[in-house]
């Protein structure tokens, strides 16, 4: 994408071993040939280069000279000198706009949003198999010196089985065969490489017994389906985890929509020790909007249980039910019952 948008700039990929070697051996001389600007791809392989960028930018004061892209979350700030744009896998809205998909919910959840799969009409299962192998063998070693890749692979599988659930690090550690400190480190690896993210609980004085651990979600449901062994739409439709997959997909879509607009979304979940919960709290203009997510196709009043509980303590606050059935009008204008397709507008 960067090459399409900034086609007038030279393109340099540090994935190329020769290029990486040249840049490492004499970074300053290497960058001098691109003083007028360039696209530098896979920059996470060259963390040292950021020190030189700072000097170049301070000396010139020019904006938009360098486009830096990478597959991992970059820790270097270059504060005041850089703007960040997080590009996640394609959203439902983007797939529709590109005429790559319509309202094929099961296909979208199963395939995920990695552009290459859709553009080249690839087999998602085969693509994911190669992606996971490449990710573990290359990117993980780059981010952390993980010696036992077998245990790390097991950890990824366990994370998939815990998607949509509140994290219990001690339980994950015991099941993986490592300590809690290692689990914390490995979760950070998966977060920094945009495999999964942690949805934080909503902290307020609503209830002193609120759950304080985050929930675990995957950025891409296609990858999540692959890790769960779901390879066809037929299996997905009857899978016992379909409800959690649908919830994961909706929450990821909301996150993508905001990031695509350059907005860091303020997203949370609510759950207390009595089991009362709301799947998603989306903060807009300082006010939380409660969103309940249900995979059912027929409406029933029980679907509103979490929203009703929330409304007791948050009067005159908006609530939304997103499900697979038809949208409905409600007597109370604060409550909206919407079809899943409307998530593209969130």
Question: Can you walk through the features of this model?
Answer:
- The protein is an alpha/beta fold and 346 residues long.
- The protein folds into 2 domains: 2-68, no CATH class; 92-345, no CATH class.
- The chain is built from 15 helices and 10 strands.
- The protein has helices at 2-5, 17-25, 27-32, 49-60, 92-97, 105-111, 115-119, 124-143, 149-161, 169-176, 180-192, 221-227, 233-238, 242-260, 305-313; strands at residues 11-13, 38-41, 66-68, 196-199, 215-218, 266-271, 277-284, 287-293, 319-323, 335-339.
- The strands form 3 sheets. The chain has a 5-stranded mixed β-sheet, with helices on both faces. A 3-stranded parallel β-sheet has the order 1-2-3, with no helix packed on it.
- Helix 6 (105-111) packs across helix 12 and helix 10 (169-176) crosses helix 11.
- The longest helix has 20 residues, at 124-143.
- It is globular, with a radius of gyration of 22 Å.
- The mean pLDDT is 89.
Give the averaged pLDDT, no decimals.
89
- Label the structural class: alpha/beta
Estimate the global geometry from the Cα principal axes: globular
What is the string of helix and strand elements?
Answer: HEHHEHEHHHHHHHEEHHHEEEHEE
- Count of discrete structural domains: 2
**Helix fraction?**
40-55%
Main sheet overview: 5 strands, mixed
Assembly type: single chain
Q: In DSSP terms, counting alpha (H) and pi (I) runs of 4 or more, how many helices? A: 15
Strands of the widest sheet, in order across it, are 6-7-8-9-10
Beta content: 5-15%
* Structural Rg: 22 Å
Contiguous low-pLDDT stretches (5 residues minimum) are none
């Amino acid at each position: 994408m960067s090459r399409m948008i900034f086609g007038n700039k030279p393109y340099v990929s540090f994935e190329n071993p020769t290029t990486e070697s040249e840049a490492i051996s004499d970074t300053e001389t290497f960058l001098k040939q691109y003083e007028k600007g360039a696209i530098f791809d896979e920059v996470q392989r060259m963390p040292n280069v950021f020190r030189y960028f700072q000097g170049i930018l301070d000396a010139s004061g020019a904006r938009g000279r360098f486009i830096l892209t990478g597959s991992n979350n970059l820790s270097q700030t270059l504060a005041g000198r850089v703007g960040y744009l997080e590009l996640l896998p394609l959203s439902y809205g983007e797939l529709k706009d590109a005429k790559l998909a319509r309202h094929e919910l099961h296909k979208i959840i199963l395939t995920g949003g990695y552009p290459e799969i859709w553009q080249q009409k690839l087999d998602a299962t085969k693509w994911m198999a190669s992606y996971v192998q490449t990710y573990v063998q290359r990117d993980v070693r780059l981010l952390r010196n993980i010696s036992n890749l077998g245990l790390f692979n097991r950890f990824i599988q366990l994370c998939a089985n815990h998607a949509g659930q509140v994290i219990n690090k001690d339980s994950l550690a015991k099941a993986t065969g490592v300590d809690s400190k290692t689990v914390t480190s490995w979760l950070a690896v998966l977060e920094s490489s945009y495999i999964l993210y942690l949805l934080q609980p909503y902290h307020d004085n609503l209830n002193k017994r609120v759950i304080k651990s985050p929930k675990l979600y995957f950025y891409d449901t296609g990858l999540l389906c692959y890790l769960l062994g779901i390879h066809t739409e037929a299996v997905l439709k009857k899978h016992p985890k379909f409800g959690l997959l649908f919830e994961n997909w909706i929450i990821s879509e909301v996150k993508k929509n905001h990031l695509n607009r350059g907005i860091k979304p303020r997203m949370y979940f609510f759950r207390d020790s009595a089991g009362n919960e709301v799947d998603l709290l989306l903060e807009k203009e300082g006010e939380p909007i409660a969103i309940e997510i249900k995979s059912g196709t027929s409406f029933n009043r029980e679907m509103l249980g979490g929203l009703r509980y929330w409304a007791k303590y948050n009067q005159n606050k908006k609530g939304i039910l997103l499900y697979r059935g038809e949208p409905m009008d409600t007597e109370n204008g604060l409550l909206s019952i919407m079809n899943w397709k409307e998530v593209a507008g969130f």
